[in-house]
Amino acid sequence: MPKVGMQPIRRQQLIEATLSAVNELGFAETSIQQIAQRAGVSTGIISHYFKGKNGLIEATMRYLLQQLAQSLTDKQAEVGNDPEQRLMAIVQANFAASQTNQAAMKVWLAFWANSLHQPELHRLQQINHHRLHSNIKFEFLKVFDAKRAEKAAQGLAALIDGFWLRGALMNEEMNLSIPIEICQQFIRNQFE
């Protein structure tokens, strides 16, 4: 009989083990056995909680997305209602350490690649894409008409995604100052 209250602890252990395994071995080479070994549990626990590797990747992505959402909430709470500052909070949240450490970046890349072939991951990717776009557009709509806000939102989202992808593919610690500075300049240019 399972111990009461262990499920959240076990799930978190397995998510952290997944981040570690994908970081070290890559998604394709990461097996359920390796994840279970890192977490100190049996492979049956993974099947019980996640129904397999794909379910575990989905849960790991949900975890990263929750961290992103929390970071954004925290950063926007610090800046009040100024659209320019709130847009910078979006940029900073997307480049937060929880999203740009090597393990997270490798899981994000695996997620993006696998979302093209797995409906549940594709759904999560679409939610994330729409959330980023709508958060950015909402702030630009405070100042611009719909057409201009849409163009500005697409531009800033492309900068965030582009810098993030370039950083992830470098396979080394990302220097965040340059992408953040360029995104900030883009935002300022929109308001001039």
From TrEMBL:
<comment type="function">
    <text>Repressor involved in the biosynthesis of the osmoprotectant glycine betaine. It represses transcription of the choline transporter BetT and the genes of BetAB involved in the synthesis of glycine betaine.</text>
</comment>
<keyword id="KW-0238">DNA-binding</keyword>
<feature type="DNA-binding region" description="H-T-H motif">
    <location>
        <begin position="31"/>
        <end position="50"/>
    </location>
</feature>
<comment type="pathway">
    <text>Amine and polyamine biosynthesis; betaine biosynthesis via choline pathway [regulation].</text>
</comment>
<dbReference type="GO" id="GO:0000976">
    <property type="term" value="F:transcription cis-regulatory region binding"/>
</dbReference>
<dbReference type="GO" id="GO:0019285">
    <property type="term" value="P:glycine betaine biosynthetic process from choline"/>
</dbReference>
<dbReference type="GO" id="GO:0045892">
    <property type="term" value="P:negative regulation of DNA-templated transcription"/>
</dbReference>
<dbReference type="InterPro" id="IPR039538">
    <property type="entry name" value="BetI_C"/>
</dbReference>
<dbReference type="InterPro" id="IPR001647">
    <property type="entry name" value="HTH_TetR"/>
</dbReference>
<keyword id="KW-0678">Repressor</keyword>
<dbReference type="Pfam" id="PF13977">
    <property type="entry name" value="TetR_C_6"/>
</dbReference>
<dbReference type="InterPro" id="IPR023772">
    <property type="entry name" value="DNA-bd_HTH_TetR-type_CS"/>
</dbReference>
<feature type="domain" description="HTH tetR-type">
    <location>
        <begin position="8"/>
        <end position="68"/>
    </location>
</feature>
<protein>
    <recommendedName>
        <fullName>HTH-type transcriptional regulator BetI</fullName>
    </recommendedName>
</protein>
<dbReference type="GO" id="GO:0003700">
    <property type="term" value="F:DNA-binding transcription factor activity"/>
</dbReference>
<dbReference type="Pfam" id="PF00440">
    <property type="entry name" value="TetR_N"/>
</dbReference>
<keyword id="KW-0805">Transcription regulation</keyword>
<keyword id="KW-0804">Transcription</keyword>
<dbReference type="InterPro" id="IPR050109">
    <property type="entry name" value="HTH-type_TetR-like_transc_reg"/>
</dbReference>
<dbReference type="InterPro" id="IPR017757">
    <property type="entry name" value="Tscrpt_rep_BetI"/>
</dbReference>
<dbReference type="InterPro" id="IPR036271">
    <property type="entry name" value="Tet_transcr_reg_TetR-rel_C_sf"/>
</dbReference>
<comment type="function">
    <text>Repressor involved in choline regulation of the bet genes.</text>
</comment>
<dbReference type="InterPro" id="IPR009057">
    <property type="entry name" value="Homeodomain-like_sf"/>
</dbReference>
